[in-house]
Specification:
Structural class: mainly alpha
Number of helices: 2
Strand content: under 5%
Shape: globular
Radius of gyration: 12 Å
Largest sheet: none
Distance between the termini: 38 Å
Number of strands: 0
Length: about 50
């Protein structure tokens, strides 16, 4: 999928498909707070290290 500059996070949420940028860059990592807040359906919890 190629970004064309017209897909906002809101449009991505409506589509129901996993956006190409989720997990692609550290800002959108799946265990991070941004992905959890914006795309909770694709977010994962990080494994706690003891």
């Amino acid at each position: 999928m190629q970004p064309e500059g017209r897909d906002t996070p809101e449009n991505q949420q409506i589509s129901g498909k996993r956006p190409f940028f989720i997990g692609a860059v550290i800002f959108w990592r799946t265990d991070g707070p941004i992905a959890a807040a914006t795309f909770p359906q694709f977010a994962t919890k990080s494994v706690a290290k003891d």
